[in-house]
Amino acid sequence: MRVLAALASLFLLLAPASAQQADVETEADTTPILRMSLDEDGAIPGQPLVLRVDVLAPTFLPQPPVFPSFEVPGVMVRLPERASGPTSDSIGGETWSGVTRAYRLIPMTPGQFRIPSQTVAVTYADPDTSEPLKVDLQTDEIVFNGLTPEGAEDLDPFIAAEKVELKQELVGDPAALAPGDAVERVVTARITGTSPLFLPPMIAPVETTILSSYPAEPSIEETEDRGVLSGVRTERVTYVAEAGGTAAAPEINLSWFNIETNKVETATAPGLDFAIDGPAAPQSTTDWRALVPYVLLALVVLAVIALALWLLWPRIAAWRRRRREVWLASEAFAYRQAQAAVRSRDFGETVVAIARWKTHLPDNQWGTDARLAAAMTRLGESYYGRASEAHAPKSGAWSDVLSALRGARRSRRQSADRSHGHVLPPLNPV
Length: 430
Hints:
The chain has helices at about 1-30, 290-330, 330-345, 345-360, 370-385, 395-420; strands at about 35-40, 40-45, 50-55, 75-80, 85-90, 95-105, 110-115, 120-125, 130-140, 140-145, 160, 165-170, 180-190, 210-215, 220-225, 230-240, 245-250, 250-260, 265-270, 270-275. The chain is α+β, with helices and mostly antiparallel strands. Strands 1, 3, 4, 5 and 6 form a 5-stranded antiparallel sheet that branches. Strands 12, 13, 14, 15 and 16 form a 5-stranded antiparallel sheet that branches. Strands 2-10-7 form a 3-stranded mixed sheet, with no helix packed on it. Strand 5 and strand 6 form a beta hairpin. Helix 3 (about 330-345) runs antiparallel to helix 6. The radius of gyration is 49 Å and the shape is flat.
């Protein structure tokens, strides 16, 4: 009996854990899954790699998955016709359904390319309630290479295709032109097996004194037939005759790698020879020998100026010294020094600077400097009076000194002008 009771207790303890584990496994088994496959790990630039992405769910998808673009620099991504479609697979003995999508990844240059992990948003029906549930699935990192085939290492730009054809058409006769006539050149490149975006510019510009070229914007048309890209690139240029003479437009050579024969081939369009019947263009040649006298004259003038400066420099330096000495000894300089001392609020320097300034003008015969003296007295008391220990000089005291200094200068200059006879004496002297 004791053995049976122990076994019953053990069963009760293990039963919840087993049920919980079963629930986890059921929940894990009902989550949508994502599968990826790349048919090759490398391709010739311009040729596609097929990337297939499958999304499977245990029920159904009420909304289509939101797939990423997988675009990275140097890789052209294309979705062929009917790129997406339904798919199904047997998982755990049950049939899961979903959507599959095929991408065309086309390397544009040789080298290695990496497409990082990206998100696929999936909406599926809940197995129990059929309510829509959303989940984000992550793709794997994709690594592949752009391969350069043997013998095509020197191709620049690299073009790999099944077939490349060049066709040239002319509107007008380049061998019978007069000034003002025009010839239109139309070059069409038809490529099979890759996108026409790989085709480079073909018509080189021609600029001479007798001929001008006016290119139009190239047109590109891309087509697809059962996953195979093809297309056409068309370029137009108009040549206009300017003057009599002859000119040439170079031929067009387009080298490319044939993926069917594994050989490098060249498509060619012939060049053009222009003959223009008319007066020749004026020759605008510059005779540099005629400029030699002017250059020599300029050098002589510069040498004379340099010699004059070298000879006159001592006199110029002496004149500058005298001018500086006169300025330093002038009343204007002394007044500026006094103003600077007041603004710096240095009492000792202010007393010395004002006394030095007064020596540059005669005593005030028509007025007094009483206001300046009173302002300086009040300022001195704030420094050396009884209240100096408790009260520092206020900014208003310095402002009064500066204002009084300006008035004193004005009064003294007027007194100096009167003493020199600039003002008439009184009519009735006492």
